[in-house]
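So, can you check what follows?
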Amino acid sequence: MKYHLISLGCQMNLSDTERVNTVLQQLGFSQTEDENEASILGVIACSVRQKAIDKVYARISKWNRMKNRKNLLTFVSGCILPADNERFLKLFDLVFPMSDLPQLPEMISQYGVITPAGLLHANIEGETLLSTVKKTKESFSSVLKPFSLPGKKPEMITMNPGKNIEAFWDLEPTHTSEFEAFIPIQNGCDKFCTFCAVPYTRGREVSRSSTEIMDELRQLVEKGFKSITLLGQNVNSYGLDKKGEEITFPELLKQIGEFGLSIEKDFWVYFTSPHPRDMNDDVIEVISQYKCLAKQIHLPMQSGDDHVLLRMNRKHSMEKYRQIVFSIRRLIPEATLFTDIIVGFTGETEEQFENTRKAMAEFEFNMAYIAQYSVRPGAASSRWADDVTKEIKKARYHILTDELTTHAIKYNRKLVGKTMPVLVRGRDRKEGYLSALTEGKIVVRFKSEKTELIGKFVNIEVTSVTPLSIEGALADQLISQSVH
């Protein structure tokens, strides 16, 4: 028996998916990339963007039609707004917050589904086995009622999406990569930005035990993982919900840095995402002191206009943001800077958008994830008129994209002729080339068919650049060529 999972949204959802894999595989199911082979179909959803939710509705519509010809069990979890949850309860067989993942086996058993592991432990043979399998198929009804835990009404499931998150963290992830991994250090958010759904989909901020975080990190490094990302909706407020009981985020980074000094293995540690309100020099100073703390910072700006930031309830000014960037450039001049920006936020004027464009030019980001504003039901801004047209949003998106490429290439040009370490991630789309990332997460392409390099650090010499990527050659190849 097989299962098929679709993960939408951010890296946190990808990390959650790895723990879903663990639960289903412990039940004896094997993963398949072909949904037609699966008897369990699941979505790790994201209500942060309407486009992602539209994909969920399209998928469940197809899956429910598939029930007319085969027995299926469907479920949805992840970052889901209450309004979307209400609709999903009518469409999926199981709807649950990610913090209830440890109870998924119980949920499946409520439907009378016999799992492969259950059959194995029951030691059923011959006709009894055939009879049990037949009953299992009959138990997959094509019209199943939404599941709710005993004693709970279905709508109560979404009341506290972060409850029991510690039990979820106790699950060991089944990693989808042998060299890149995620470590959740925090769940939820207390910032309540007016455009954002996270406080309603993930709940309030809860910090994970630093002891558990460090244990997981040590195990990953010992297993040979090279790139590790600390995950949270607001990582630099880590520990603030447990003052006196937990260390702070800079202290956590320092522990990681000291661990990096104590071993001979090379690895890069990233984090995402911080909030400018809580970002201070202490974090930047720690990063500058330790080799294993990657010199790449993702600092969401969202808008370059103070009035728009106020309406977004971002709780930081452009002057505060400017001070942070100044500290990064002063303390870690080699660092790359990534950001998030929303265009067409409700009420955004041409003058306010122009301030964002100017900020893009000022800070010269290496990468910017630019989103066109979409209303999220339940978020505070959903009560305001979405008065910027789609055409204007699209035009502003393209203007900022052009601004990004204009300035990002300046950094890349300075790399030409330099030799630097990169982490090889796989084959490139261009035939005969491999794809990699620099420590600053700039995409690299270099000519080689040595697939044994995937998952390893290699040195490349940069030979040419584009605005958002670079091309190079293996340094040892260049040396051998020069000798001859």
